[in-house]
Amino acid sequence: MKQPHYLKKGDQVALVCTARKFTKEACEPAIQLLASWGLKAVLGDTIGKDNFQLGGTDEERAADLQQMLDRADIKAIWIARGGYGTVRILDKLDFTAFIKAPKWIVGFSDITVLHSHVNTLQIPSIHAIMPFTVPNTIESAVVSLRKALFGETLSYEIPSHPANKTGQASGELVGGNLSILYSLLGSATSLDTKGKILYIEDLDEYLYHIDRMMYNLKRNGYFEGLQGMVVGGMTDMYDNAIPFGFDAVQIILDITKEYAFPVCFDFPAGHVQDNRALRLGQQVVLAVEKERTSLTFSDGGA
Q1: Which of 61, 191, 242, 260 has the most CB atoms within 10 Å of its CB?
Q2: pLDDT in tens, 55-99
Q3: What are the structural domain ranges in the chain?
Q4: pTM value?
């Protein structure tokens, strides 16, 4: 892994739209938050663009992200919001300059497209709150993003879920939104999970969709050689008039039951108010015990 440099006061952070649209007015809470940390927000050309659901045309969103990937004075790129649209621009991007001088890409949900792609380039990124979610998040999530950006120690300890599979594991943390990971299977952006710890979360899905996606990950070898699994928010799940019969936790346990790796449920990350920052692509230690679960990150050294 080629680690991006951690931020310092005075650094510039770009805000861009790679998916859904976002207004300049809506950026204000995020701009103020960055300023409180001594950072300067630089609004991309897509902020304020309106192309139906999207923050500009595919060409406009690709050009905006490209300039921020290439600009040496931009030290992190904070994607304004998720939704859908990042995959539409991925193949229009040139990561040559980014590979030579990587910077933190920050976001979650649809931004899993970028997290997965830069992981294949051996560059870490940060799964965390976005400008869209700043007004409705809570302090612990906000503080965790600051720590992640500035290179402070990230270490989380939470009460264990009754369904957890206990054990200890270490490895590189990878993953993101389950639906996006599923959509990337078979492409060059699909993750290599062998020897790693997989993080997943999702929102607004039918339970049988969760089952189908998990089975497809299994059939694509995602669980072969996996060292551990961290399950974040499985938020606002739906069922049919005739019940599927399993909830999300039971689905994941059933599909992974033949594997020995530890599994942690209800980790505070994803489409939840307490969306703690995760430095994807960095080494972690996962300890799942009967009463407590901890996830501790290495500092990465950059």
Answers
A1: 61
A2: 999 999 999 999 999 999 999 999 999 999 999 999 999 999 999
A3: 12-150, 155-297
A4: 0.98
